[in-house]
Amino acid sequence: MKLSKYYSFTLREDPNEAYLNSHKLMLRAGMIRQATSGIYTWLPLGLKVLNKIKDLIRNIHIKNEIYEILMPTIQPSDIWKKSGRFNDYGKEMLKIFDRNDNTLLYGPTNEEMITDLVSNDLKSYKDLPKLLFHTQWKFRDEIRPRFGVMRCREFLMKDAYSFDLDYENSYFSYCKMFILYMKIFNLLGLNVIPVKADSGPIGGALSHEFILETSNGETLFFYDKTILDKDCYNINLNDKELVIKATEDLLSVYSSSSETHDEALFKSKTSPQNQICSKGIEVGHIFYFGTKYSEAFDANYITSNGEKKLIHSGSYGIGVSRLVAAVIEANNDDKGIIWPKQVSPYDLGLINVRFDNSKSKDFSEEFYKKFTNKYEVIYDDREVRAGKKFNDMDLIGVPLQVIVGEKNLLNSNIEVKHRNTGKLQLISLDKIESYLEKYCEC
RNA sequence: CGGUGCGUAGCGCAGCCUGGUAGCGCACUAGUCUGGGGGACUAGGGGUCGUAGGUUCAAAUCCUGCCGCACCGACCA
Asked: ∠ CA A16-A19-A23 to the nearest 5 degrees?
């Protein structure tokens, strides 16, 4: 991608309405623009990251035999009346009226819709278990949207749903999703802590939140710091025994959101030097709700004995658009964003520091042509001063910058800069290709 | 919804108290110099002062309503 053709407008100063670093940086780097309170337009750079995170989450679901569907954003109200949540959900639900004066709503979540769907298709015990997910825009009319994309009204969420024979099987699905979530956050380079949670209006008995610890977070939570030592990232998710064991091992260590926190239990279970009270951002939330929704939608199956039984279900959400902000919140400095490689909008930032110099310019063009099919390259070919290019590239935050200038070319060198350490390194021209290969592998 | 504050150029702000020609910095356009970390000089362009009404000879400025935005609290991925 050539910056001269891109839709990229960076801001030098922090916009007045932004308070969180992630919000300021997303606006400054030209990732998003606010349309109205809690509703945003995603510009090319922001959308690139959003899609990267979405795809990473999506692919690991599919790899684990959780299949993708796409439910609509607009839902009929009758299914919500069936489950009783039409009124329970309250003012956060945005209601819409069509030309025939039917009440529709912009979906805040999809339990009703998917249970209704599944109740028609799943008939036999042979059809279970089933796991489905989709990544779709949601709308919750928050009392007070804030922090940019972190707590907005329209947001992108990945929500998965499990359908099982009984509690025991459903518990396995829950544990499987639990470990899958640990893997996902690990892949995103985030240190996320699972905590016991209140199930809120979604309802249900078993519930956990996944919290990214940050000083600016909204959620207060408590945990035993030994939970950070648990490694469950390489477990085969089809191995029922291991998955349940790993989950229970994690849950044996105290961790809780403030709503469910039990101070006495915390104190008795955790040694004093390991007791942490911290703030964070909720990036995922999982629920087991038994037969709550299958009852309402008459979602049942026939057992091998010919008996009719209710399906047990659970739901598993990740705030995808929120994660964009969360990743930035966890990875930035005074110059801008520092993307972890896996979610960076581009692999390499190519800077031609001398647009007026043909040697430097020609080399940059060649370099771009050569590597743009192999890596995702953001090439700053604009006719602006070097200082602006350096600052913009730092702000945008791609992990590796390749800096081309006449001085170094005359010595057959090219410069690279690692965004996270700020380290500058001269690489000889004949080594750059292998350098990049090695860099991108790890 | 309660408490607080703010709406003036794309962004950041001054002007309002004490009514009288619409201002500054950045960005933008043109030119000259410059050319490896937001460079300098010169000349420009860009405004329904959130909106509707009121007071006044005269309103960005005073008064009232409305709208929008943000911060603090109760809700949530």
From this structure: 95
pLDDT: is A105 or A200 the higher one?
A105
**Residue A414 · residue A359 · CB < 8 Å:** no
Q: What is the pLDDT of residues A119-158, one digit of tens each?
A: 999 999 999 999 999 999 999 998 888 889 999 999 999 9
ipTM of predicted assembly, 2 dp: 0.93
pLDDT in tens, A16-47: 888 899 999 999 999 999 988 899 999 999 99
Q: Is A385 exposed, middle or buried (0-12, 13-18, 19+ CB in 10 A)?
A: exposed
Nucleic strand B within 7 A of Cβ A22? no
Q: What is the pLDDT of residue A146?
A: 87
Residue with CA nearest B75 C1'?
A143
A164: nearest Cα among A294, A281, A253: A294
> Does A283 score more than 80 pLDDT?
yes
Q: Is the pLDDT of residue A202 over 60?
A: no
Judge if pTM exceeds 0.80.
Answer: yes
Considering only residues 372-391 of chain A, list those whose CB is below 7 Å from strand B: 383-388, 390-391
> Three-state SS for A441?
helix
Residue A17 CB in 7 A reach of strand B: yes
Strand B close residues, chain A 179-198, CB < 7 angstroms = 198
Q: What's the CA angle centered on A23, arms A17 and A24, to 5 degrees?
A: 70
By C1' distance from the Cα of A39, the closest nucleotide is B69
Buried b (16+ CB within 10 A) or exposed e, A109-123: bbbbbbbbbbbeebe
| Closest nucleotide to the alpha carbon of A319, via C1' | B77
Does at least one atom of strand B sit less than 7 Å from the CB of A14?
A: yes
- Report the nucleotide nearest the CA of residue A16, measured to C1': B12
Tell the burial category of A265 from Cβ atoms under 10 Å away from its Cβ (0-12, 13-18, 19+): exposed
Q: Find and list the nucleotides of strand B having atoms within 7 Å of a protein beta carbon.
A: 1-2, 11-13, 25-28, 34-39, 68-77
A145's tokens = 């949207």
Q: What is the pLDDT of residue A441?
A: 85
Between the alpha carbon of residue A383 and those of residues A3, A41, A241, A439, the distances in Å are 10, 28, 60, 29
CB of A426 nearer than 7 A to strand B: no
pLDDT band at A201 (very low <50, low <70, confident <90, very high): low
Q: Which alpha helices (DSSP H) does A254-342 contain, by range?
A: 263-269, 292-296, 320-330
Domains defined along chain A, listed by start: 21-333 (3.30.930.10), 346-441 (3.40.50.800)
CA-to-CA distance for A194 and A177, rounded, in angstroms?
12
